[in-house]
Amino acid sequence: MGKIRTPLYNALIQHRQLNPLSFHVPGHKNGILYDPNQFPHFRQTLQLDLTEIANLDDLYASEGIIKEAQQLAAELYGVSSTYFLVNGSTVGNLAMILANCQKGDVVFVQRNSHKSVMHGLELAGAKPVFLSPKFDEGFQVPSYVPVETVKKAFQKYPQVKAIILTSPTYYGLTYTKLNELIQFAHSRRVPVLVDEAHGAHLIASSSFPKSAVSVGADVVVQSAHKTLPAMTMGAFLHVNSKLVNEEKISHYIHMLQTSSPSYLIMASLDLARAYVEDMLTKEEELNQTLHKYVEIFQRLDYIDIVSSKDPFVAVDPLKLTIRSQNAMSGYDLMKLFEKARIYPELADPLNVLFVLPFAKEFQDTGHFSKVNDILKSTQTSKMEWGLQKEVQIDEISQLSISYEAMENCTKTFVSLEEAIGEISAEMIIPYPPGIPLLMRGEKITKNQIEALKRLIKLRANFQGGMKLAEGLISIFRKR
């Protein structure tokens, strides 16, 4: 990466070169408590797992290397401030919501948002107004909220205090008119908060969809670890507006995030930012590498690469979604790849999603030849229902009861059929991707129950739904 600066990482290396003797936390003492014969990899890694000692700065009172590393990230992304997050995008979403949404505030929320957004709204005691996204006919998944829907919501709820969006989606779908949506919100002095967990790399190439930081979003949270070479839980929070109170955002980050931040994660964020800087000069090599991966998937038998038919969707080239030509479920198709030791990101009833490397070098170790043999030898039967059925939800909707009212209700379990028309007492989330199918406080519809049954039959994984395996859902009853 040439002369690109990595101040935090360099400081950890320099400290290690001192051959220091640790009488401070963490208790592994620079890794020496791990037997070098039994745990050599862990022992070596933990030599850089340090804490707030001389010359290593303090994340929550940064004046040296951490401050410099965060400033370098802000300069790269073209924002006023960047915060390093060591508890993932989840803590960033919580902080930006709590800093901008007070109890009783009306907040517009993209319906297919991550569960952490829903948790933030509940903690804030806000009144979410859910905006249903367009359904992408090509991918057969929810996509973006059109600007027209936002304008309708403003007419109905002019007192709105913030808009919370997700861009890109897990599948890499990005709304090409996001800038227009943001401009409209700003004309009403309403900030736009964006969960861009899957878009930390978007600024690196003109062939990528535009990042929310580039089109004027006020606060943007990015999971650097999802597409950049950062450690798991490493994330960025970018502030780029006077419509939001940065002091409050900082306050909530300090409140919600661990008081013992991982220096390994922070150093990986420093390196990830440097990596993006370097990749800005490698756009041609990057595009060639991605093209080679696409060609490999195109050569696989009985496989189609999924594309969007929506003229207002730009698809992230790092996200490659495939589907079986034999109508095999996405879950079963993913298992065939896993037999060849190829591990995709996720599957849904129809699709399998792959996250391609954000890299300038191409790697093929022969795994794809093996998976093709498996694909050719596998007999499949057609799925009973063909394409996914869109869960019909109102374009603009609210919870049936407030978060506060939920606290005064009792809960009981009923069968899936009996739950139709009742108020859900639990959030049920197919995971991945982590988008709630059913939210607490929401009236349960027949369409949602049918979708839930389909996913259960396909052996999807869920978070929430304590007794789904028994065919039961928790609902609210008034005391």
Automatic annotation (TrEMBL):
GO terms for molecular function: carboxy-lyase activity. Residues 402-462 form the Orn/Lys/Arg decarboxylase C-terminal domain. Its cofactor is pyridoxal 5'-phosphate. It comes from the Bacteria. Residues 6-300 form the Orn/Lys/Arg decarboxylases family 1 pyridoxal-P attachment site domain. Keywords: Decarboxylase, Lyase, Pyridoxal phosphate. Pfam families: OKR_DC_1, OKR_DC_1_C. InterPro entries: Orn/Lys/Arg_deCO2ase_major_dom, Orn_Lys_Arg_decarboxylase-I, Prn/Lys/Arg_de-COase_C, Prn/Lys/Arg_de-COase_C_sf, PyrdxlP-dep_Trfase, PyrdxlP-dep_Trfase_major. Belongs to the Orn/Lys/Arg decarboxylase class-I family. This is Arginine decarboxylase. It comes from Aeribacillus pallidus.
